[in-house]
Structures are given as C-alpha cells and as structure tokens.
Design brief:
Distance between the termini: 44 Å
Radius of gyration: 20 Å
Shape: globular
Number of helices: 11
Number of strands: 12
Helix content: 25-40%
Structural class: alpha/beta
Largest sheet: 10 strands, mixed
C-alpha cells in the first residue's frame, strides 16, 4: 500500500516528451480577481494585454487552491518587491492557453497538461507560447481509499479486487455500481475509460468542485464510511487525512495516449509554467522573476492550507508566507 505524501490538484497524459496529468475535456472558463477560493465571474476574453511590458502582468489561475497559492504569492512579490501590478484571472487550462496565445494573459504558473493539443499548437507550431520551466512541484493523481478501510480490507488497494467490494461504495447516485467520487467536471480524468477497460463495476460521480469534494471526503472520513475517490498530490488535506492509493496497472509511457483506451495508472508529473512568448522575451524583471519561481509541494501546501482550511484571504495568506520565507523567495528575484 502506498500512503499519500502530505502535499496540494488533479488528472494524466503525456505532452510531448514530458508526461503530464490530464485536466479538462470540456474547459469551462471563469474569470475573477482572486480574493478567495470560491470567487468567480463570467469569462472575459477581452481583457487588455500586458505583453512586452513589465509594469503590468496578468496571470491565469486554474480552479484549484494550489494554483491559487502560486498566483497569490507571485502577485504579492511582483507588487511589493518589483513594483509591478499583477492581475489574477481564473481560467481553466484549455482557455488559459488561448489567452496566452493572444497575449491577454502573460503566464500560467501551474499546468497539469489539460490541453496537450493546444500546447502542440501554440508552443510547437505557432511559437506564441513558451515553456516557463518547472514549478518545482510534482503532481500525481490516483484512486484513494481511507486507511481505516484499507486496514479492514487489505486487498482493497489492488484494482483487481475492487469489484468484490463494489457494494461498499454504492450510493443513490451510483445505483447498483460502486461510486468513484470525482471533483470538478472541468478536471480531465481518465477514470471512465479506466473503469470500462478494466471492466470495473463502478460509476464516476462528480461532487462539482474541489471544495465540494473535500467536504464530502471529510464527512465520510469523520463518520468512518467507506469511500473511494479520484484524488491527487500535492493537496493540503493530505496532511490531515490518512489516505491510501489503490494500485492500478502500472503507468507506462504512452499507455494513456488514446483517451478511449486508457487502462493504466496516472503518471508522476512535474508541474509546468508557460508564458506568452512576447512577455517571456520582453517582460523584463517580472518575466525573469516568474521564470525563477520554484518551490516545493510542502511550501505550496502551507499557503493553500491557509486559504482553504483556515479561510484566509489569498492575499493575506501570501503576505504571511512571504514575510516568513524571505530566504526562499529572494532567490527568485532578478
């Protein structure tokens, strides 16, 4: 059994030579200046571009708290150390790449590989978007059960035995099948294909958002109820709950290349940054700082936990972390 490391989101596919976690099949864009995890508004595809200038930067923020933590810290340092106005815009990955291409967004700090075709189009073909380097955080998605359940049924952590336990996971939403709890519908997941191709008698049921999924997981865990869930690391909640990964067939390069034929586990994937090409070249100190931004999952989780668990405003959480970790972020300054 593999225990989750305490870290902060979600889904997996290869992107060129670099394997990534897959995110969203149907991207739904929402735009907001982030002041908290739930803040959102209608997508604004007409925002002004800041490309070629370091006096204003627009950062796309995917809809999970780890990404919010990255952006909040970057915004605070840009504005308070580099005298650069930073706007945060919440966009799902696929739409974020369109915005990077057009110059309406300058950077995305955490990409899980949810738009491999757009990476190919904009990075490889059009060259309007460039790679910004590793964030420093390695992402992984899988299926997880609570340790108390794994202790009671040790063989439940092998996918070959899941059908034997499907009745433990039945809900009103899953009917006569076992429920595999999912998060946001905007997260790309291979789970329906995995279930079909491994002939598992399970059904994916969506909580609706990361926050709603966490609420359901915490309620089930507190009540010691059986549950199996699509889950990921880094995630701040992993420091509070003891979850054990279910062993799926081993991930091998290319086993998830065809979305309809996926029958393997998710990859371990270094999370990536991407920049608008003009901003990367002409963005001055702001672009250099964002290229240098690199931290650990544990550091990200400190900020994510303050935002999601302690209910701090994202700006306040970023300010606290920056003041407590000067030795870390000073290395990112140009």
């Amino acid at each position: 059994m593999k225990k989750l490391n305490p870290t902060g989101p979600a889904g997996a596919k290869p992107s060129g030579a670099r394997t990534r976690l897959t995110r969203t099949a149907t991207a739904v864009a929402v735009v907001t200046a982030l002041t908290g995890l739930s803040a959102c508004a209608a997508a604004d595809t007409g925002s002004s571009s800041s490309k070629g200038s370091s006096d204003s930067v627009t950062i796309a923020v995917p809809s999970w708290v780890g990404a919010e933590a990255n952006a909040a810290v970057a915004q605070y340092i840009l504005e308070n150390e580099l005298d650069t106005k930073a706007e945060l815009t919440q966009l799902d990955e696929s739409v974020a790449f369109d915005a990077l291409n057009s110059g309406k967004v300058d950077a995305i700090m955490e990409d899980w590989g949810g738009a491999p075709k757009k990476v190919d189009l904009y990075v490889k073909d059009k060259k309007t978007v460039v790679e910004g380097g590793d964030l420093g955080v390695v992402g992984h998605i899988g299926w997880f059960v609570p340790k108390y359940l794994a202790d009671e049924h040790p063989d439940i952590t092998d996918w070959k035995n899941l059908n034997k336990y499907k009745n433990l996971f039945r809900t009103a939403e899953s009917g006569d099948k076992g429920q595999l709890l999912e998060g946001s519908p905007s997260y790309t997941t291979n789970d329906d294909a995995i279930i079909k191709n491994l002939e598992l008698d399970y059904k994916t049921v969506y909580a609706g958002s990361e926050a709603a999924q966490i609420t359901q997981i915490k309620e089930n865990y507190k009540a010691k109820k059986p549950f199996i869930t699509y889950w990921w690391t880094p995630q701040w909640l992993n420091a509070q709950l003891d979850l054990v990964e279910v062993k799926l067939p081993e991930y091998k390069e290319g086993c998830d290349a065809d979305p309809e034929k996926v029958d393997c586990a998710y990859a371990q994937t270094p999370l990536q940054k991407y920049f608008n090409a003009d901003f990367a070249e002409d963005g001055g100190d702001a672009a250099e700082f964002l290229k240098n931004f690199n931290w650990t999952a544990e550091q990200q989780n400190v900020v994510a936990s303050m935002i999601a668990d302690e209910k701090m405003n994202s700006k306040a959480a970023a300010e606290k972390w920056v003041k407590d970790n000067k030795d870390v972020w000073q290395k990112w300054l140009p």
